[in-house]
Amino acid sequence: MEDSQIVDLYWRREEAAISATARKYGTFCHRISRNILSAEEDAEECVNDTYIHAWNSIPPQRPNRLGAYLGRVVRNLSINLWHKNHAQKRYSGIEALLSEIEECIPSRQTVEHKVEEIELTGFLNAWLASLPRDDRILFLRRYWYGEALNTLEQELGVSHGKLAKRMYRLRAELREALEKEGYSL
Q1: Contacts 24+ apart (CB under 8 A), 109-112
Q2: Residue 112 structural domain
Q3: Could you say which residues form the signal peptide (predicted)?
Q4: List of long-range contacts for 123-130, beta carbons under 8 Å, 24+ apart
Q5: Do 151 and 172 lie in a common domain?
Q6: Is residue 165 part of a domain?
């Protein structure tokens, strides 16, 4: 079923929208959540919460790309659950991802935080658009969807060292571009 047909089901408030969403995007959403949480039960909870969120937000929203919309929702729900579950604990899964990318993201502790956040989002989107397609996809799969390096290594058929070097180069390019634009890191 096409995304527009699924969104139309939501707009008509037909429960078939949820089952159609689960059939088309269930595995995709589950993979994103599991990459962040590393726990099947928690991932399943976030995926189900994603369906509820979609039901409650469509309408009034009408996403053009349902997969991207659901991916953002499940990612945010998963990160929120991770923070809730690990408020007092250290956890290597998401900690490793965040530690890799944190040196490229400016501090948010300024009065103009919201304006800077909007500007930074625009800058990051433009930077990603400037990358070759393969690098853009790789960067998003690692840092947005939280896919493990060993999974990416297997799919790309490259060694750990080669992929680590490529990821380092992308982070260095991002850091350089941010500094060039005046973002303090």
Answers
A1: none
A2: 94-180
A3: none
A4: 123/177, 123/178, 123/181, 123/183, 127/174, 127/177
A5: yes
A6: yes
